[in-house]
């Protein structure tokens, strides 16, 4: 039976991406769309690319009748999600795309986000939404916290390697190149076409990016001891994509084997033949992750390049993958579309 | 029952777009892929974005066993199609994406393409592939000639207006802005990122573009007398999209009505509310056409803006739409995916 | 002797472009920079690309001591200029880059901008700043009104043709393709990289763009009777450049001759050999205008393509060219730099 | 007195950039331009953006009369330079922009380029062209070997740090993001707009990029022992710029001080205030280098971000800076133009 879906925060890019994906999903139906700042508008006004769809008019989230909703995607800004989700009816499962429920430790949350968490009890029930590694917990969850898009990319690279014990944990460098949609539909000078196109730069240099909190939580849990990486994200003049270049100490053969072991049966993660390198345009608009491995001129060191689409596999595609599991739908449903190239 | 499909010319952009679309089509299966210059290669080598698919290795077209093929898409360069298609088995239906079978008059063909047509007899059986206007003929055809991408865009704008008699036929100006994938995967200096990005220009100025032949054939047939338009295409620094700005003498109200009449029941053509204007990014990666109409400051004149994705609705999406009809499949199957934005 | 220069509105793109140009000008020195919203900031904070220059800190325009200023560029938003310029000391010459002093008729100003002009007396002394056509008046002026960037482009195309009487005045179509910096540093969703890149669209369709007021004022004055054109601007995913495609009734030979006659001695306007077409990337960052002419397939009709850099020749370069004249400096000083390609 | 200049290899991007720069240089005059594959063509045909200049027609390099030439820039492909330069008259000074004379050790040359060097004797007289560090040698040289553009970027970052002994030499990671003009005007699929725009990727992963040879030669010489870095370049969808993110073990305060010490009097190198980060668009079209430093979350580690324009400071601007020195002209002449932004 078709599942009834609500999306709160439907006027941002991750909300729009959810609608794009669900519009081709055979077992889901969008029943309610909320965006408080644009309540009353048609979706075709907010996002004309959805003009061909017959979608509900935007309402405020308070206006949604959750009695009919099987699952609600919450694509609100950070700090707003934790205010709203406690008001959603208990029978409605929730996939949150914000950062609010990603960090299990309230102290870590406060360190990275600056405020006390407003829904500490609810946090305890949240499952971290990196599907390939939390599949069973997600199936049973009523609240799943989608990962950061950079955090997802770095984890697809490093989890299998930390888990297999094939790299030196004190020498991990993650250099990430992020397309601009990751910054959302925010009106900032540096996101203007005139300023971003033909320019690129590092930001949050020195380990100050909030997705560091996710890296440390997850990597330390796997390793059984504190693990910190040296991480710099860069803003790149492209619309979709994250490319992570990871520099490690470890044998490339063991690293490649660890990836094959981890991802052999994963429908969305493709490990490339040794030495072959992925490009962001090969996953654009899709739910796939491509990973390439190469040894370095310096013995005992390796480089791993990982790409995914930040809006899809890094956010809304991951959210749908989790929703499928939570609703008892086959995991890949609605997510096997090919990338768009060129 | 699933239909078996071959694609000749699979190493170009239109071939790749066909594979992208068919990979999500529930009633088609790709059985053979040919590209003579790259025979023996895996598709994932030629187009890594297709890495997740289990596709046949590239062969030469002569190696295809057509006994099993229900329909063959021919995405070869102009002049090559007319050499190859006569060799395809008669029971196999053919959708040609080249220019070879678009012009019904061999003299017109020679005028625009410079050579005598090599398959004049076959040409007689070809149906012009603008689905919305040749639907019945296409259902019955064994050879359909896909339209030029610019030619499609201009016709979505002008056919209903010429047909309804609401514009002056001596004063039609078509100014077209074309994204670069329309030029194919050809290695030319002006298509390099360094030269196209941050630059744009007119080309084939003065009515010398070959798609003029299609305009004159089709518009004259509708009008019952010779019709020529003043047409300039421009190369724009974007990958997908055609935007046509059409300047006519005619009342905007009558024009809008003619569009509503023509497209009321068309699943892929959306006529916008009066004065609203479409953008290419609203149809990217999709099979949709968006049309906007506005009256001008000068009385009795109007401007019509039409957008589509040159690789999809302008080429491979149109081809698949036609193939559906030829194979008795519901016309929209595999083509209702939402555009990719941003 | 070096002339002392002030710039009001230095935190926008045209202000920054003025600084770029003047920093290489041997006879000008920047003495004061104002931007009321950013007063107190260093220019290297507002525009880090100017980091290598030793520039005055931003102040409010009220803080400028005009006693030392020979010439002031006013790069303020429309409607603000007319409030500020009356307060500038009389001995200081002014080049205004806003729209405020372009239209000589206060009724026309009100029609296009919606408000009564706040400095009608000052307006009477303003000279329209299209250098190549108002050179003598500009030399003698104390207030010059820079043209709209689209308005400049269209006039380089049409003034010589209307003046020479070689085209039909009732059949002029101007289709313009404008890079995004023309919209300034304004925070709007459609100017975000994620929304503009890979998308383009028409705007102000139907003759509603304000630069129409300049076209009508200037073309009617030359023709000695009312002239209106059918004009549509389009937003293109590039940072600098305007390309105008103009469709006229007239013999291409006569048109080309009219251009040669008009521009033979102009250092910045290059008329291309017959049939050759310009690209925006060939004038980027420069003060040059390139014009190409071609006859059409339809007898008696021609197409003219004109390109310039909207921020330079279309705005700040033009302003500097005018300032040179007003200050008795050789007209081309500081403006002969080659375009930046690629 | 004006110096007479020849450029061999004038049909590529670095040749064109030399012409752009020299066209504003008050003490140089272009006397001969060679490009054997395009001999006989006007430069305005090969590069229409140079249309406003009165330049010599292209000839073959064999046709140049060197008796009148003070200095010749050689912008030929690798391996061709070493064939051509021995034929240039001895009184003509030469700045070579290829890789042919960068590596002092013929064995290192063969390791990285695969062939025996064809002009080993001439190599002995060549000076490595990183102006800021070889100034005196360059003044006295008759042959200067321009550096690789990546090699220059990495050295502006690392030379002062290795020299000052403030970083661990066994833990240096250089992650570089390179705009596409660095690949030259070569016709390759991955350089097409349709494939590069909206996509980015690592290449030459694992220390296989040829600029590694320069790093090892120079860093080892400074350190007095072999130094190797872990280096990955990435192709970014932009036209000009290199951004290097360098991860080191060292105290950020000491690092910043080493930069201040090294670059305090350098006109083209700007060290940013602690924690401030540069963007490629802030140096586009200019000869400037911007460097930013930040400490990391992990104690004792730092990140350094360096940007320059690959075609200008990374190649043709550097070449002109060297030519100035070789000809007794003030070093910064013709090179102080501001960047182009936006």
From TrEMBL, chains A, B, C, D:
Gene: argC
Domain Semialdehyde dehydrogenase NAD-binding: 4-141
Any one GO BP annotation for this protein: L-arginine biosynthetic process
Location within or outside the cell: Cytoplasm
SUPFAM superfamilies for the chain: Glyceraldehyde-3-phosphate dehydrogenase-like, C-terminal domain (SSF55347), NAD(P)-binding Rossmann-fold domains (SSF51735)
GO cellular component assignments: cytoplasm
HAMAP family: ArgC_type1
Name by which UniProt lists this protein: N-acetyl-gamma-glutamyl-phosphate reductase
Record-linked Pfam families: Semialdhyde_dh, Semialdhyde_dhC_1
Pathway linked to the protein: Amino-acid biosynthesis; L-arginine biosynthesis; N(2)-acetyl-L-ornithine from L-glutamate: step 3/4
Enzyme Commission number, as recorded: 1.2.1.38
Catalytic reaction equation(s): N-acetyl-L-glutamate 5-semialdehyde + phosphate + NADP(+) = N-acetyl-L-glutamyl 5-phosphate + NADPH + H(+)
Signal sequence, start to end: none
């Amino acid at each position: 039976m078709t599942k009834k879906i609500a999306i709160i925060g439907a006027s941002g890019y991750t909300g729009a991406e959810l609608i794009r994906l669900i519009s081709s999903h055979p077992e889901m139906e969008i029943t309610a769309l909320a965006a408080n700042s644009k309540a009353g508008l048609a979706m075709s006004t907010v996002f004309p690319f959805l003009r061909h769809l017959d979608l509900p008019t935007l309402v405020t989230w308070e206006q949604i009748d959750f009695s009919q909703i099987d699952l609600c995607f919450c694509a609100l800004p950070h700090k707003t999600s934790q205010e709203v989700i406690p008001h959603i009816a208990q029978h409605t499962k929730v996939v949150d795309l914000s950062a609010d429920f990603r960090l299990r430790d309230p102290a870590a949350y406060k360190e990275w986000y600056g405020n006390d968490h407003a829904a500490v009890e609810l946090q305890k029930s949240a499952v971290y939404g990196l599907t390939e590694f939390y599949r069973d917990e997600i199936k049973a969850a009523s609240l799943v916290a989608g990962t950061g898009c950079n955090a997802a990319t770095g984890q697809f690279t490093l989890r299998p390697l930390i888990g297999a014990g094939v790299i030196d944990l004190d020498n991990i460098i993650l250099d990430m190149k992020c397309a601009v949609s990751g910054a959302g539909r925010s009106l900032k000078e540096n996101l203007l076409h005139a300023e971003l196109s033909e320019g690129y730069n590092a930001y949050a240099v020195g380990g100050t990016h909030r997705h560091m909190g996710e890296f440390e939580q997850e990597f330390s849990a796997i390793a059984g001891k504190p693990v910190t990486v040296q991480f710099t994200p860069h803003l790149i003049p492209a619309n979709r994509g994250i490319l992570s270049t990871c520099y490690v100490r470890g044998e490339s053969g063991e690293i490649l084997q660890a990836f094959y072991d981890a991802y052999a049966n994963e429908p969305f993660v493709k490990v490339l033949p040794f030495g072959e390198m992925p490009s962001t345009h090969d996953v654009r608009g899709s739910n796939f992750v491509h990973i390439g491995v190469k040894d370095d001129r310096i013995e005992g060191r390796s480089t791993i390049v990982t790409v995914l689409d930040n809006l899809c596999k890094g956010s809304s595609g991951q959210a749908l993958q989790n929703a499928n599991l939570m609703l008892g739908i086959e995991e890949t449903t609605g997510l096997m579309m090919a990338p768009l190239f060129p």
